[in-house]
Amino acid sequence: MNTENQKSAEQMDLLTAVENIDNLAAKSELNDEFFEKVAPYADYISEMMSINCEQSVMLALLISHSDDNRVSMKELSSSLDCSTARLLRYTNYIDDLEKLGFIVQGRPRYRDDRSFYRIQQEIINAFKRNEKYVPRNLSGLTCYELFDEFDLVFQMRSDEELTYDGAVERIEHLLDCNKNLQFVSKLRSYEFKPEDEILLILFACILVNKNGDKVICRDFSFLYERREFNNIKSTLQRGSHPLHNRKLIEFTNSDGFINNDTYCLTKHAKDELLSEINITRCNALGRNDVIKTEDIAAKKLFFSDKVSRKVDELANLLENSQYEQIRKRLRDEKFRCGFACLFYGAPGTGKTETVLQLARRTGRDIMQVNMAKIKSMWVGESEKNLKRVFDEYREKVKECDVAPILLFNEADAVIGKRSENGERSVDKMYHTMQNIILQEMETLDGIMIATTNLAQSFDRAFERRFLYKIKFDKPTLEARMNIWREMIPALTDDEARTLSTKYEFSGGQIENIARRHAIGKILHGDAENILNELLSICDDEKIETKEKKTIGF
To answer: Which residues, 6 or more positions from 511, have their beta carbon under 8 angstroms from its beta carbon?
Structure first.
């Protein structure tokens, strides 16, 4: 790269590189001259993303021509005024991007639709932040974690964000990364064809992640194209599938009659494949969603006097000795003894952090409900998973000397307004889930906290069931000054006042700016003028909060 290009690269960022590649691609027909012209920009993306120049060019073009993060080859060739045949010369680089996890290939929903590519959201976020994308390390997983990853792949396939081949590739990659697990070793020893191996994994996944011991054909219809599905269904019904032959699955038995439309893993399969998993302990909360009180770092919070008083009052009530006394008195007087609390307000105002600090102050663990794991692609499973959450929380309360907090973070989906006369299955699912929560709150014997950013869409049926409701407003001028000084102690009072007056940021936004300042300090040392540096970062933050749509996202 020459000196002029090197200089321009220093002033470049990822989005600028994408825009320049896109501008040069117009009417270029992707000829050799085009690749020479875009070399400086492709080099910049290559260095940031650790991919080669051709892959960088194709990624830039896919991003710049995507609509809602999706783009088809025909749309791309049309946008570039380039023949599809010419573009097909570069599909191997697009395939490489899929294998590296930058994009996923989606299947068409309907017969007349075209297949498309979807840009992974974390890639787009990295380009927006001008940061290197580092793929997740999928090696060294526990068996539980491996099944969580399987579930994500199946969910993407169900949502039609992955082709069948894409799903197989991702699962094979997961298996390759975790050969040390007994499950993987035994599975590979069967030497099944990919279509049989992935079906066996799905059977095991339903058992481990969904607590389901029975599988019907509808449970795996999403996985295959119609003709392939019909062939597999027919083979299963005849009992001649390779999984039958290896005695890994069997027909279910009801009242002495065999049902050849319903299947389950055999005891032999469970013993051989799932010895690393205690199936009876698989639960809807997820294995990693318990936050231990000793793992919560102390953090100073700044609120208005009104919010501070309410938070302190709640903290005092949740001190264990006080909590047990109040709970006993309420029970003696025939009142419900559960503490259900709602924290609502704008994003970044400290709702979640307040829950953490309450738990730390009162010595309580937090059982955080992961709604992504609750919701299931299988009909009726979401409701069962949610019911299981409350069942497990009751058991946890009985086991613990100090009752944990059950946290529904960002609970908008489950406490939002219910649709009237919803006909869609998803509306019915949410309606049932809301009814479950309402019923469970009536009999709650413990501490439940829900947080939401969308108080205006709050369903009034929940209102009376929350004993404590705290609204978190954006911080006042004085609170913002305190947050600035707490986050960046080097600031003077006048500098903190200048920042607080000029920008009405939430605590979360100020923390984001403080992190960027800390990164800059690590990379470049102390700034000559800290206030000017922070003003510049604040301007960037302010711009990023506006929904400015540029090249396809």
So the answer is: 483, 487
pLDDT of residue 91: 78
State the helix-helix crossing angle for 164-177 and 182-189, rounded to 10 degrees. Answer: 120
Domains 3-129 and 290-471 are alike in CATH topology: no
d(CA 119, CA 161): 10
- What is the four-CA torsion angle of 27, 30, 33, 35, rounded to 10 degrees? 130
Q: Which residue has the higher pLDDT, 378 or 36?
A: 36
Q: Is 91 within 8 Å of 127 (Cβ atoms)?
A: no
**Domain ranges in the chain?**
3-129, 143-281, 290-471, 477-544
3 state DSSP class of 429: helix
For residue 258, the model assigns a pLDDT of 77
Which SS3 state, helix, strand or coil, does residue 118 take?
A: strand
The Cα 276–Cα 18 span in angstroms is 46
Helix spans in 253-380 (H):
267-273, 305-318, 320-332, 351-362, 371-374
| Residue 241, amino acid | H
Looking at the domain 290-471, which fold is it?
A: Rossmann fold (3.40.50)
CA nearest neighbour of 249 among 192, 181, 199, 194 = 199
Contact (Cβ atoms closer than 8 angstroms) between residue 87 and residue 94: no
Structure tokens at 64: 């710049």
- How far is 341 from 311, CA to CA, in rounded Å? 11
pLDDT of residue 286: 46
- How much is the mean pLDDT over the chain? 81
pLDDT value of position 281: 44
In sequence order, the 6+-apart residues with CB closer than 8 A to the CB of 89 are 30
Distance of alpha carbon 364 from alpha carbon 359, whole angstroms: 5
- The answer to whether the beta carbons of residues 138 and 146 sit under 8 Å apart is no
CATH assignment of 3-129, given 3.90.1150.10, 3.40.630.30, 1.10.10.10, 3.40.50.300? 1.10.10.10
The pTM of this model reads 0.49
Degrees, nearest 5: CA angle 11-16-541: 80
The token pair at 487 is: 């986050």
pLDDT of 4 reads: 43
